[in-house]
Amino acid sequence: MAKYIAKRIMAALFTIFVAATITFFLMKLVPGSPFTSEKTNEIAQAALNEKYGLDKPIYVQYGKYIGQLLNGDLGVSLKIQKNVPVTKIIEDSFPISAQIGGLSILFAIAFGIPLGCIAALKRGKWQDGVIRVFSTAGIAIPGFVIATTSMLIFSINLGWFPTYGLDEPSSYILPVFTLGFYPMCYIARLLRSSMLEAMGQDYIRTAKAKGMSVFVITFKHAMRNSLIPVITYIGPLVAYTLTGAFVVEKVFNIPGLGRYFIKSIENRDYNMIMGTTVFLATLIILMNLLCDILYKIVDPRIKLTK
Amino acid sequence: MNKVIFKKPTAILLLVVMVISTALAGCAKKDTTKNNANTGANGEFDLNVQVGPEPGTIDPSLNTTVDGATLINHAFEGLMKINDKGEVVNGQAASYTVSKDNLVYTFKIRDDAKWSDGKPVTANDFVYSWRRAVNPATGSEYNYMIEMVKNASDIMAGKKDPSELGVKAVDDKTFEVTLTSPTTYFIEIAAFPTTYPLREDVVSKNPDTWATDPKTYVGNGPYVLDSWDHQAKMVYVQNKNYYDVDKLGPDKINFVLMDDQNTILSAFKNGDILFGDDLPSEEIAAMKDKGLYIVGQLGTYFLCINTSKKEFSDPKVRQALSLALDRQYLVDNVAKGGQQPADTFVATGLADADANKQFHDTATPWYDLKDYKGNIEKAKKLLAESGYPNGKGFPSIELSTNPGHEAIMEAVQNMWTENLGLNVTITSEDWNVFVETRKSGNYQIARHGWLADYNDPISFLDMWVTGGGNNDAKWSNKDYDALIKTVKTSTDRNERYTAMHKAEDILAKEMPIIPIYYYTDLYLKSDKLQGFYSSPLGFKYFMYTSLSK
């Protein structure tokens, strides 16, 4: 196991390096500059390019960036928060995104798993029908619709929650609901189908024949095997959700990391693009590793050393 | 074996919860105060307003945005300032004198002008800031605002040392500026953020980061930045050392940082903010009489024709394209932001030679806005004269734009196709890419917009001199260049304005650009908020506001 993890970590570092390299060159291929302005001031632009090393050939810039990266230095923001270190921006905004994201994953699991179980157990009955319609709708409706509609109803018409920010505990409810709604529905659907499949297996029939209670059969035998696809889904979901969701953060004006992914590209803020990408890549790779280890715990038949 | 099995799902769930709670660790909440009231504890007046998203910078030398300037105006003050009537009045300067040749300005700084940390504002603070702005190492994109100062252009180009700039601290309270050529609007420049004083001891210690930390953000304006939650809000409190502190309104101004138009509107409707600087354009009609204000702005929205392309070299073609547009329709049915249809290039709101009149009102209209049918006839005739009757044989036109302007471009496309029989396509590029495309002349016709930096028509007309950095139309006219030179060197107000009107008439004849409308500034303001004002450049002023019951 230890050897496996060590191997995986080495591979992860290599993957991050590749991701950083590809992003770097793709980003430089896109036309435009962080200092593009409607009002031309060529001298000032040249001075800015020189100051931030953008006047150097691309391979020099790349070498310099990778050197910095090895030292844990992500450079400073060129435009979005001019001259602020990228690491500080991530440090400030990631905890906020992670908080909202973590809560919404908890919400998705806490409601998605029971809903999936109920639907599977009551297959073909009205409970199943209601849950299926509900979860299909949840997957079909885009996040910004849920966000703006819930804001319109609960914040403006009913006045229960604030319209922006995270200043009060109640301000968390709408963003967490919006962000957790899709994964909740997805988990419910995933679990329903994998559970139905498990319920049809021979060992379940054996368990039934032995006279075990429905509760034991469901949670002890069927559930365990049904969780594999859910775990596969939750791994990357955790990475993506913790690093923030653009739509939710924009609509509810949450100062998280998610908005920077889009904003940094729009602004050609090179160091921010690189910083956020490397950070997200690292997190995804970590989560995938964690998932693989979780598989092993859930299903001992899976071999990690493959 | 059996015993272990039941524990494992529990273990899995536990692990998931652990992962998440690790991520949550250290996420202690910073601020738990209730935020949606505009009166704070002890009956304090805490004002919540929105003027823009997270600013890229609030360093007065580096700022390039209108919302950034609003934030800076609350923490800094220049020699001059804009009052609630839009007039330029003394700010940090107690008085000033101008030499007979109009080249030397001598400002006396107020005795009670102080920094937020209590130190007096001195002439050296201005000398430092002005030199910093023109120093190429600073990378100030708006330093051309003071290019009329002696040696400024050479310093910006790296040919001279910043210490050679024509500014001098005669003594602690006397600041002297020497100009290269007389500049009638120089006093207004002295109210622009690039010219605000800076503290050398503070800035030189952290030249790149002093303006990112409230602790080192020392200003001389009415308010002080107290805290900054990035992407959330900036809290400004009164500067107790400001000379006019007794007249200030809000005890605290919370600049809420937002960029989503729907969120801004929702927060405004909910009363969470009393001022919002943006709203979705489809809500404009619904918000009329509900707090929406539409005020003039010194700017023009237009199409820029690449005159270096063969197909557009004939002014008759350019005239025809311009005449075939129904600007009233574009404004009323497409833009829908209360804009004013344009019949000249220089926007409304700029003063004429007689300061009580508007430059626009005494200018000759380029075409008759009301006679759309007649204009179409003229357009058809001109196009035929140019050798393309009914548009036959004219090459396909590509109309370049950036996202957000497609609707107007489509309407233009339609008008040109229907009225002139031309084949028009639209391409939309990312803002950064679009600006470079336009600048490099790699386009046929492109959307354009221009906002003045100061209240003088030359801010518009200077754009089209031969080889100018912003002359995206690649247009050149010797008479025009000569007139602009006169405008820039003359000190005679009448002579200047006559020349500017003449220059604009040349533009009308040559039509390298097609004006569409004059910009408006839209904002939401609660009826409760009194004493608010904005400047023609779009800067917002909240320091003297109060709440009505």
UniProtKB/TrEMBL annotation, chain A:
Presence of the UniProt keyword Transmembrane helix in the record: yes
Residues covered by the ABC transmembrane type-1 domain: 94-295
InterPro entries, per the entry: BPD_transp_1_N, MetI-like, MetI-like_sf
CDD domains xrefs: TM_PBP2 (cd06261)
Compartment(s) where it occurs, according to its Swiss-Prot or TrEMBL record: Cell membrane
Keywords associated with the record: Cell membrane, Membrane, Transmembrane, Transmembrane helix, Transport
Cross-referenced Pfam families: BPD_transp_1, BPD_transp_1_N
Transmembrane segments: 9-27, 100-121, 133-160, 172-191, 230-252, 272-295
Gene Ontology BP annotations: transmembrane transport
Annotated Gene Ontology cellular component terms: plasma membrane
Membrane topology qualifier: Multi-pass membrane protein
Alphabetized PANTHER family for the sequence: DIPEPTIDE TRANSPORT SYSTEM PERMEASE PROTEIN DPPB-RELATED (PTHR43163:SF6)
Family: Belongs to the binding-protein-dependent transport system permease family.
Protein name per UniProt: Peptide ABC transporter permease
From TrEMBL, chain B:
Domain of life (superkingdom): Bacteria
Statement: the UniProt record of this protein carries the keyword Metal-binding: no
Topology of the protein relative to the lipid bilayer: Lipid-anchor
One Gene Ontology term, aspect cellular component: ATP-binding cassette (ABC) transporter complex
Signal peptide per UniProt: 1-25
Domain Solute-binding protein family per the UniProt entry, residue ranges: 87-471
Keywords: Signal, Transport
Matches recorded under Pfam families: SBP_bac_5
Family to which this protein belongs: Belongs to the bacterial solute-binding protein 5 family.
Record-given protein name: Peptide ABC transporter substrate-binding protein
UniProt organism field: Anaeromicropila herbilytica
Lineage: Bacteria, Bacillati, Bacillota, Clostridia, Lachnospirales
